[in-house]
Design a protein that fits this description.
Elements: E1 5-7, E2 10-12, E3 19-23, H1 31-44, E4 48-52, H2 56-68, E5 73-76, H3 81-89, E6 94-97, H4 105-118, E7 121-127, H5 146-164, E8 170-175, H6 179-189, E9 198-199, H7 207-223, E10 229-230, H8 238-251, E11 259-263, H9 274-284, E12 292-297, H10 303-306, E13 312-316, E14 320-325, E15 328-334, H11 338-350
Parallel strand pairs: 3-4, 3-10, 4-5, 5-6, 6-7, 7-8, 9-10, 11-12, 12-13
Antiparallel strand pairs: 1-2, 13-14, 14-15
Helix pairs in contact: 1-2, 2-3, 3-4, 5-6, 6-7, 7-8
Bound molecules: iron/sulfur cluster.
Length: 354
């Protein structure tokens, strides 16, 4: 069980729902584009958003962005403690830093004092790529993975430094692009601290490869009860990260949001273009909030029966298309009308207009 940390209006840790977050790909100082992207992310279900702060102009832009968005805003800082101070001053709800790369202890202390004053949480993020080789924190237990051990020792040195100065609104992260090191590090850290964990597989890759890596890595951690907030890091539009995060949480029955598409792999019995149809349905239901199981099946022989647990589904038939609910066929329509009729039914059960 982790401690509760408040980030803007959201509580993470201590049994709160795993919060889904993403990161803007826009230049933060381009406030119009950044606000527009955050609004799209909010619509997709993003609950916390992070922006990179490469310069002072970006830090100052946070106050403008914050006024226009509904979700907590996190500032991502590298190296320059002055950017951390300016981000806190301009309303960041949380900052993400690696204290090891922002300089001398008095600079870290200045950040702690400012964060305390403004009730800004801090994510202490340790990356395997930027590790100090030695740490003053001596690990009594180890993971058996040397790199993970060094990451946790470094993390705990920072956590101890913050806590000794009376600062406890800490979230931790331990990122390595290799999954096994990431898992070993988070599992070991959970034995040393009750700070909530931000989990993610860093630089996971393109949409397909990244989702696979993140699903494996984050899935194992979440199944072991580790992870209070998560980001699926993808080389893709950030909305896809939110979509993927909910699919991972849904697959583990941790949180449900939106459409869970069940589609058949197709075979010699297929009587409709399942690949095209499944992609269309996925695209159309991307921002759906209500959890619904939606099936797209290739044939009428096995389709409705195999997908009987689906709330709604479509299947191909000889010259026609079928719409079914919980395995029961409710409509038989000409193929060219299938999508239109299906959307009508979907709007009825999702109580919104798609
Ligand atoms: S639902 Fe029909 S088309 Fe799809 S895999 Fe099963 S038998 Fe083949």
């Amino acid at each position: 069980m982790t401690r509760k940390v408040s980030i803007g209006g959201i509580t993470i840790g201590g049994g709160s729902p795993v919060a889904v977050q993403s990161m803007c790909s826009t230049k933060t100082k381009d406030t119009d584009k950044t606000i527009a992207q955050i609004k799209r992310l909010e619509k997709a279900g993003c609950e916390i958003v992070r922006c990179g702060i490469p310069d002072m102009e970006s830090a100052k832009a946070l106050s403008v962005i914050k006024k226009k968005i509904k979700i907590p805003l996190v500032a991502d800082i590298h190296y320059d403690y002055k950017l951390a101070l300016a981000s806190i001053e301009n309303g960041a709800d949380k900052i993400r830093i690696n204290p090891g790369n922002i300089g001398s202890t008095d600079r870290v202390e200045a950040v702690i004092a400012a964060a305390k004053k403004k009730k800004c949480a801090v994510r202490i993020g340790v990356n395997s790529g930027s590790l100090k080789e030695t740490s003053s924190f001596k690990l009594a237990k180890k993971s058996g993975n040397g790199r993970a051990d060094r990451m946790v020792a470094s993390l705990m040195e920072h956590v101890t430094f913050f806590e000794e100065r009376g600062f406890r609104d800490i979230v931790i992260s331990l990122k390595a692009s290799d999954i096994l090191t990431t898992i070993a590090a988070y599992k070991l850290a959970a034995q040393y601290t009750d700070c909530p964990a931000h989990i993610g597989i860093t630089e996971a890759g393109t949409e397909l490869g990244g989702i696979i890596k993140s699903s494996v890595g984050l899935g194992i951690l979440l199944h072991d009860g580790i992870g209070d907030t998560m980001r699926v890091s993808l080389t893709a539009e950030p909305e896809k990260e939110v979509f993927a995060a909910y699919r991972i949480l849904g697959a583990l029955d941790i949180r449900k949001r939106g459409a869970d598409i069940i589609s058949c792999p197709t075979c010699a019995r297929t009587e409709i273009d399942v690949i095209k149809l499944a992609h269309m349905v996925e695209e159309l239901t991307m921002n759906l909030e209500k959890p619904l199981k939606i099936a797209v099946m290739g044939c009428s022989v096995n389709g409705p029966g195999e997908a009987s647990e689906a709330d709604i589904g479509v299947a191909g038939g000889r010259g026609i298309g079928l719409i079914f609910k919980k395995g029961v066929i409710i409509k038989r329509v000409p193929k060219k009308e299938l999508m239109r009729e299906f959307l009508k039914e979907l709007n009825k059960i999702s109580k919104r207009s798609i």
